[in-house]
Every structure is written in structure tokens, then in C-alpha cells.
Design goal:
The protein has 18 helices and 12 strands. By secondary structure, it is an alpha/beta fold. It is globular. The protein starts with 7 loop residues before the first helix and ends with a strand. Belongs to the DprA/Smf family.
């Protein structure tokens, strides 16, 4: 599950609540009011009037489908699968601060990566060749600067940004409009597998939930909420990317847009954003310069989170990490010469996802220095 221990009854209760026909705010409110997911189900008859629970929701909460919940439990048995809930200390802090944070996130891959400083790169599904080239270039440079690149696994700009980040040895996260076990569009299944191996697939929808039109605006608010800023590469004036940008602005995040030809209809959405106050950017360095202070502030919050975490079963703090035998082995394997994450994974016999988390902690402690392009060396 997540880093915080959770009882079997609490896990069961969360799965029941996340499957209920309720809005996210109602689920969060029920759990906050009762103190836990299990208590919310136990106090259902008391809370039903306060939260105006409808007949359909009450019917499910009183008698959930045991086969469906059992299937969700089996999905969680995979070590690569996890569930971050509203009451988990490891729930991503930036997303928590938004007004419409989902009560639960199903994750395939390394859930700890959701705390990394992220830049969302979004744009048109039918992007031009120039737009795709820009998406790849900006994603690679942002990854080299130490940012995770987040997008929605869609055709066009999304897929180009994900793939380019992986090719550069960076970390990318895909927020899905389906359950975590389904990939839409299906042709991106190989790409999704690569993302899960070195980053994370994230969804608020439980396993088995198929793509529906209403899911994608909901997905977009999570993309914006996880990120320090959103870069729109190409977009028509009716694009879903503009929804992501609007949500980012409402959440107090930075919005960047690439200008384009006045004759390109996919540049009009970006020009509209610029007129509305988005920052016009021509190089990734402009984004890095703007977001670097925010990334450092997020790093300090992660440092504090690790410092106050429960010692039993918790991730080591950055300072303690260097003294941990596993982390010491990483430092020994790293040496003082630059080495790629893939090469280091071979030396340490560690999965790349787990190694990325360890390197993050060592970097926060100053023991490791990121050189960009997925290469690291010991600090001198």
C-alpha cells in the first residue's frame, strides 16, 4: 500500500468508499468527519443526513459487491501497485492543497515520485510535426534540469513528452482517464509499461474503469494539481489542454505557452492563453528559472515530511539514508564519475524506480549531484 501502515479493515473501507457513487468532496468529508474510512462506514446511519447521501450511494455503502472489492484487493497485492488515500501522509502535498483533490489515487510504479517537482507538458492530440518536436525538446531539457514531466498519456504532445523524457533518462508520470489497469488509447500500452517501470501511472479511478468523456477533464485537474507549472505546446481554442491550463491558473500554478504561427490553428489556443496572462516562453531555461525556487521549496517540504515520518517502516530521512546499508551500497556503486541510472541499477541490482527514490533522498542530503539526462555522481 502506501508507506503508512493501514489495517485490513481500513483498506477495505477505502475501497468501498472509492467505488461508491459519491463525489470526491463527499468521500473526503465523510472520512474527515468520522476520523477514518472504517469509522465512516460504521457511522453511516448517523452521517447519512449530514452528507445527504442518496439511495444509490447508501445501497452500495451498506452492501458493496464483495467480488468487486476482492478484485481490487487482488490488484493491490502486486508490489508495483499502491493506493494513496486522503488520510495517507504520503499523499502528494501539492495535489492535497487544491480544492478538488481526489480522495484516493491508484498508482502503478513508484508512488514516492508523486512528490517530485513536476512540470506538466500538454497539448494537441493532432499536433503538428513542429509541435511534437517542441514537446520532445522541452521535455528532455526539463528532465535534464531535474524536473519530472507529467502528462495525460494521450496522442500527440502527451505521448511525445512522455517518450522523450524516458529516452533522456528522466522521470515521467502519466495521469489516466481510466482505471490503472487499462490504457487509453490502447496503442500506448507499451509506452505505459515503460512509464510504470521508471515512473508512475496515476488514476483516481479504481481498476477496471473504462474511458469516458467526462473522465478526461477530471484527469486534467490532477495533472495541474500535481505540477508546479503547466506548459501548453499547441492547442486549439476548444482544446482540453486549455482546461488544464485554466485549472492550473485557478490552483495558483504557473502557466506557460509556446507562441506559434498566426496561420496555425493549433497556435490559437496558446495565443489566447498568452493574452490571458500565461507566460510566453521560447526556451526551457525560462521555465526552469521560473520554477526553480518553487522546486526548492517543495524539496524542503519533502525534507520535513521525511524528518517527521514514523520510524517504523518509514522511508529514511535524507541524512539517515546515507548511513543506511542499502543507500551506502548505492554510493559505493556510484563512485565519483558520472553514471546513468540504468548503469547504476545494473551495478546495484536495484529496480530503476526504487533507485530513483533513493537518489532523490541522497540528492536532498547533498550526497549526490544530478548532472541532468539521468546521470548522477557523488558530490565532491
Amino acid at each position: 500500500m502506501s508507506a503508512d501502515p493501514r489495517s485490513d479493515a481500513e483498506t477495505h473501507a477505502w475501497l468501498v468508499l472509492l467505488r461508491a457513487p459519491l463525489g470526491g468532496a463527499s468521500v473526503r468529508g465523510l472520512v474527515d468527519r468520522a476520523g477514518s474510512a472504517a469509522a465512516a462506514l460504521q457511522q453511516l446511519e448517523t452521517l447519512r443526513h449530514e452528507f445527504r447521501l442518496g439511495d444509490e450511494a447508501l445501497a452500495w455503502l451498506r452492501r458493496p459487491d464483495p467480488a468487486r472489492i476482492a478484485a481490487d484487493r487482488r490488484w493491490l497485492e502486486d508490489p508495483a501497485h499502491s493506493l494513496l488515500t486522503w488520510h495517507d501522509a504520503d499523499y502528494p502535498v501539492l495535489l492535497r492543497e487544491t480544492g478538488a483533490a481526489p480522495p484516493g489515487l491508484f498508482v502503478v510504479g513508484d508512488a514516492a515520485l508523486l512528490w517530485l517537482p513536476q512540470v506538466a507538458v500538454v497539448g494537441a492530440r493532432s499536433a503538428t510535426a513542429g509541435g511534437l518536436a517542441n514537446a520532445r525538446s522541452f521535455a528532455q531539457h526539463l528532465a535534464a534540469a531535474g524536473f519530472a514531466v507529467t502528462s495525460g498519456l494521450a496522442d500527440g504532445v502527451d505521448a511525445a513528452a512522455h517518450a522523450a523524457t524516458l529516452d533522456a533518462g528522466g522521470t515521467t508520470l502519466a495521469v489516466m482517464g481510466t482505471g490503472p489497469d487499462l490504457v487509453y488509447p490502447r496503442k500506448h500500452r507499451a509506452l505505459a509499461a515503460r512509464i510504470a517501470a521508471g515512473g508512475a501511472l496515476v488514476s483516481e479511478f479504481p481498476p477496471g474503469v473504462e474511458a469516458r468523456p467526462a473522465h478526461f477533464p477530471r484527469r486534467n485537474r490532477i495533472i495541474a494539481g500535481l505540477s508546479l507549472g503547466v506548459l501548453v505546446v499547441e492547442a486549439s481554442v476548444q482544446s482540453g489542454s486549455l482546461i488544464t491550463a485554466r485549472l492550473a491558473g485557478e490552483q495558483g500554478r504557473e502557466v506557460f505557452a509556446l507562441p506559434g504561427s498566426i496561420h496555425n490553428p493549433l497556435a490559437r489556443g496558446c495565443h489566447q492563453l498568452i493574452r490571458q496572462g500565461a507566460r510566453l516562453v521560447e526556451t526551457s531555461a525560462e521555465i526552469v528559472e521560473e520554477l526553480a525556487p518553487l522546486a526548492r521549496a517543495l524539496g524542503e517540504r519533502l525534507r520535513h515530511r521525511l524528518a517527521v515520518a514514523e520510524p517504523a517502516g518509514a522511508v529514511p530521512s535524507p541524512a539517515a539514508a546515507a548511513r543506511d546499508p542499502d543507500y551506502a551500497a548505492v554510493l559505493d556503486a556510484l563512485g565519483h564519475d558520472p553514471v546513468s541510472v540504468d548503469e547504476l541499477a545494473l551495478r546495484c541490482a536495484q529496480p530503476v524506480a526504487a533507485l530513483s527514490s533513493m537518489l532523490l533522498l541522497l540528492e536532498l542530503d547533498g550526497a549526490v549531484h544530478s548532472l541532468g539526462g539521468g546521470r548522477y555522481q557523488r558530490s565532491r
